[in-house]
Design a protein that fits this description.
Elements: H1 4-12, H2 16-21, H3 26-30, E1 33-47, E2 55-68, E3 76-91, E4 114-126, E5 129-136, E6 154-162, E7 168-179, E8 207-217, E9 220-229, E10 233-246, E11 249-262, E12 272-284, E13 287-297, E14 328-337, E15 346-360, E16 365-380, E17 390-400, E18 411-423
Antiparallel strand pairs: 1-2, 1-18, 2-3, 3-4, 4-5, 5-6, 6-7, 7-8, 8-9, 9-10, 10-11, 11-12, 12-13, 13-14, 14-15, 15-16, 16-17, 17-18
């Protein structure tokens, strides 16, 4: 069997499959997993007030198949991860396209009938350290592959995860391209700039991150990450997750702090933002009561990668991101798990966010506000032939007092998802 060192020239030449064929072992197949997810997605964003577009409304069907191998035997195990994705248009028109469910022609605004892609990653494992090269789907505070549309956002690059030290997980990576949710093409990476917060049309071919999480105790985890989008911005993240028993329930507290600033040539302009968010939730029986507050200071908005959402207190909102310059955001949330009423698989959520003190003079002033009222109901079939079939309905009422030129405009938004995953 050829050793990993002998395979390095083949990897350098871009032919890992040839190398893999010489080192395949039983574990490569025995530990493999294959899963197919079908995702039916309807998105309806009905704009209110003064808007050049009255609504965007589309319906699509997605298919995501993931085939992940095990590792070959030996000191260094090798493996391969494949992800095939297909999106199919069910309903769309040029007058209401633009939901980011489907790619559209920028001139005609007509959505494609179908689009597909194949994602490939070669992986290696040594002891408790894993290396992956190829298509990446990171889920970290400083970089997250957004799953919020029909097909997920992906990145091209390399990542390494190490758990050699007990209770400590270290992660590092470098990405040079991004594949957006409504695209099949890898492209350079940009910083998000809704509401004209930063200079548009600026891209980078290098995003680096380094950090990790340390489990201090069974109930407390500390987190730190540093990220750098070359010549655009850099960011430090400090966070913690803590939970304790309290009365008949459990109290959970989460802190997220981001410090962002421009990097190198600052090609997107000045970046100066400190974002601190604290959430607390109390769970007892089927009830979970939550509240939170997010404070921003500095001269600019929060910095995050284009094509996704910021992993801050407002994470999960549908119509806006609540990270404008100097914005203060209050969060109230209530979740209920109907298992307490004898209906396992059924859950509901009500959430209210209100942002104040927004400083956007070019969009209306320095004391602007925005708010979102969110409702969600979901059900996952628990048994029988349709086990794991998932239904999810979400609705949001979003309002702000920014000018009509703002990226985020008043709307009522509905999303309906039907997902089903089959494991082979």
């Amino acid at each position: 069997m050829r050793r990993f060192a002998d395979c390095l020239p083949l990897f350098a030449l871009g032919v890992p499959s040839l190398c893999m064929s010489t080192v395949v072992s039983a574990a490569f197949f025995e530990d493999s997993t294959v899963a197919l997810t079908t995702r039916n997605y309807y998105l309806d964003r009905d704009y209110k007030g003064d808007s050049s577009v009255s609504a965007v409304r589309e319906w699509a069907q997605g298919f995501i198949i993931k085939a992940n191998s095990g590792y070959t035997d030996g000191p260094v195990g090798l493996g391969l991860d494949l992800t095939g994705m297909l999106g199919v248009k069910l309903d769309s028109s040029p007058e209401r396209s633009g939901t980011q469910l489907l790619p559209i022609d920028p001139q005609t605004r007509r959505a494609q009938d179908a689009y597909s892609e194949l994602a490939v990653a070669v992986k290696a494992r040594f002891s408790q350290t894993n290396l992956s090269v190829g298509t990446q789907l990171p889920a970290l505070p400083v970089i997250t592959a957004s799953p919020a549309r029909l097909l997920p956002q992906t990145f091209r690059g390399a990542s390494i995860t190490s758990s050699e030290i007990e209770n400590l997980t270290l992660q590092a990576g470098r990405m040079d391209r991004v594949n957006l949710r409504d695209s099949t093409n890898n492209q350079l990476i940009a910083m998000a700039s809704p509401n004209g917060r930063f200079k548009p049309g600026v891209f980078s071919d290098r995003f680096d991150y380094l950090g990790g999480e340390y489990r201090v105790s069974e109930n407390f985890t500390a987190r730190y990450y540093h990220a750098n989008l070359e010549n655009i911005y850099e960011q430090d993240f400090i966070g913690s997750i803590h939970s304790i028993a309290a009365g008949r329930g459990k109290l959970k507290t989460e802190l997220r702090v981001f410090d962002s600033r421009e990097n190198g040539r600052a090609e997107a302009g000045k970046v100066d933002n400190l974002n601190a968010g604290l959430t607390m939730s109390y769970q007892t029986g089927g009830h979970t009561f939550g509240m939170g507050y997010m404070y921003q200071t500095g001269d600019t908005a929060f910095a995050y990668l284009a094509g996704g959402e910021p992993v801050v207190l407002s994470d999960g909102t549908m119509s806006a991101d609540f990270v404008n310059p100097k914005e203060r955001t209050m969060l109230l949330r209530y979740d209920y798990n109907f298992v307490a009423m004898g209906i396992p698989g059924l859950t509901g959520m009500i959430r209210y966010l209100r942002g104040t003190n927004i400083d956007l003079p070019h969009l209306g002033g320095s004391d602007l506000t925005e708010s979102s009222k969110d409702l969600e109901l979901s059900y996952v079939v628990q048994s029988g032939p349709a086990r794991d079939l998932a239904f999810r309905v979400r609705h949001a009422f979003y309002r702000n007092d920014l000018s009509s030129a703002a990226t985020f405009r008043d709307d009522n938004e509905t999303r309906v998802n039907v997902d089903y995953t089959v494991k082979f």
